[in-house]
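User: For my dataset I need records formatted as: sequence, then C-alpha cells, nothing else. Please produce one.
Assistant:
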Amino acid sequence: MDRGASDYALLDFGMGRRLDRFGTVIVDRPAPGAADVPLLDPGAWTMALARFGRAASADDLAGWESADALPPSWEVVIDGVRMELRPTPAGQVGLFPEHAEPTAWAAERARTIGARLARPLEVLNLFAYTGLATLALARTGARVTHVDASRPAVAWARRNASGAGLADAPVRWIVEDARAFVAREARRGRGYDAVVLDPPTYGHAPHRGAAWRMESDLADLLSGCAALTGRAPAFFVLTAHTAGLAAAELRGGVAAAFGEELASGAEVVALGVRRPDGRQLPAGFAIRWGA
C-alpha cells in the first residue's frame, strides 16, 4: 500500500505474525501466510501496544494481550478518507490495509467514468464492512449502496461517513445478506453501473441457516451482480482472501457470470502490503475490470 499511506505502515511480518502501525497505534497480530518468513526487525516488535493471540486449543479463547494499553477508538486517514478504528474481539481494527489500493483504483474509475457520462455512477458495494470503499467512491460523487449483514459494521461505517464529512453523501445503508439483497434488487428491476465486493471465506447472515461459504456461494452471487449491471459494467472489483482459492478459479467465476470477454480483459492483482524491505505480505487476490 503506497498511495495515501501516511497513517498506516506494515513494520514487519514473519514467524506467523504481522506488526502493523495504524496511526500511532502499533499492534502485533496473526499472519498465517507468513509462517515461514524470517523477521526483518525483531527489535521493532517491542513497540506493539497489544498482541492478539490465537487460541491454543478449543477450550481457550483468542484475545488481545495488554488490551488495556489500546485506546477504545482512534482515527487514521487512508488516501484522504478518515476512518475510526477500534480493537475487535476477532483481532481486527476496522480496516484491511490491503484494500487501499483496489479502493483507490475503483474511486478513480468512478471519477473518470462519471465525468465522461456527465452523471454520478450507481455503485453497489457488497460486504462493505466499515466503509472505506463506500466513502472513497462517495467522494467522487458516485451514488453508493452499502450492504453488509452486520448491523454494528454498518453503524460503524455511518460513523466513518460523519467523521469524513460525508454524512449527507448519497449513500444507501443496508443491513442485509448480500445474496438476498441482490436477488431482491433484480426482482425490482433495479440496475447499477458498477459493483465492488469483498466476500469473506465464511460468514453468518442475519437469518438463521443462511451461512455464507465462499467456495459454494460466490458463483450465484456473481451471476446476480451481472443481472444488475449487465455483462459490461463500468467497473468491477472482487477482492478475495480465501486461502487455497486460486486466481484462476476467481477469474473462472467472473467469466461464468459476466462472460469470457470481460474476464479475459480483467486484471488479476495480488493483494497485500509491503514491509520496509519491499517484501509483500500476501492477502489474496483482486480481480478487477474497468471500461
